[in-house]
Predict the structure.
Amino acid sequence: MTLKNKIQDHTATVGVIGLGYVGLPLMNAFSNAGYPVIGFDVDPQKIKMIHQGENYLKHLGEDFIRQMSGSGKFDATADFSRLSEADALLVCVPTPLGKHLEPDLSYVEQTTEAIAKTLRPGQLVVLESTTYPGTTREIMLPVLEKTGLKCGKDFYLAYSPEREDPGRKNFNTQTIPKLVGGICQTCGQLAADLYTAAVSEVIPVSTAEVAESAKLLENIYRAVNIALVNEMKIVLGAMDIDVWEVIDAAATKPFGFSAFYPGPGLGGHCIPIDPYYLTWKAREVGLSTRFIHLAGEINRSMPDYVIEQTTLALNGQRKSVADSKVLILGLAYKPNVDDIRESPSFELIQKLNALGAVVSYNDPHVPSTHKMRHYDLKMSSVELTPASLETYDCVVIATNHDAYDWQMVADHAKLVVDTRGAMREVTGKTDHIVGA
């Protein structure tokens, strides 16, 4: 039976490589569509939790894994020799930056090598990880064709960018439109056929490079506009103008304006990283991305701005940063989720520690930290009560979770540095609240 026929009658086994914020919901989408699914991950703890019916991504809901397990056509494994069991392999591995802001494609390369070891005729391979234009064709294709199998004839290769937004309620993996671009027309069509069975809208594009570039444009658009409002925050703050009110006022225009909001820096796996993928690739063709680079500089400087404002605020109370007790509110990079990838809160903690502050954090979604690529803080969330707030010299609001009682924070904290405009609606005494 051909791959096209297997896709049409829902007998194609879908393998998802990388069971994180992208891969786990993707598995669920194909499971819900009635396909047999196999999840692959190098982390044995994730596999163990899946087999036990436990969900390690809390924003997806407690029953998320159990619902998939109940289908009877679901498995998860750390054994990559089983890759040949899948008819379609969807690659959802990290694409971080190196220490010099260069693309780190080591996870993509290692995964491609693993796929090549078991690649068989009739398999479809789709990269979902965000990357620079040309990655699928220039990095993955040669490795897979070293097997002697030919793309478009023996196996199929495509790119379909993930568009996950953890915690978003109005869209999910099944309802977010899916871009698909193949290495060849046949590759693109087969990938589109597969996703059409699990996603409500699939949008084919002419090549993998178009799909790769579209994903970068989406995230660069956000990064540039966030840099703009971050710079506006600094300038308007110096003029004693409320940037949050300014944004709300501008947003009343029904056309030509989309509201973006400032913060302590960029977080998440995409927006702080993706612009540098295009910046790096542009050098290959002798061009510089000056506008994108400037936006990156502004966004990366925001934690330093927050530290500067915190230092000045403490000085205003005749305290130095050294030996001050500082509480960071919010470790996740965005409200109401447990996603701490690239969160600026980590940089704030590290910088405050370097200045001699005694730093704690509270986050109702992140009870403790774990080792990550750049940080291993070994910290746990502390209690947040009126009495505990009064013990800190300064409270820095890094993430505006809905769970926080901002009036309580205002009433009991000695000093508040607000990077999110969270304290705009509090009443009573506010002269101890500083914007940053």
Notes: The longest helix spans residues 208-238. Residues 3-206 form a domain with the Rossmann fold fold (CATH 3.40.50.720). DSSP finds 14 helices and 13 strands in the chain. The mean pLDDT is 92.
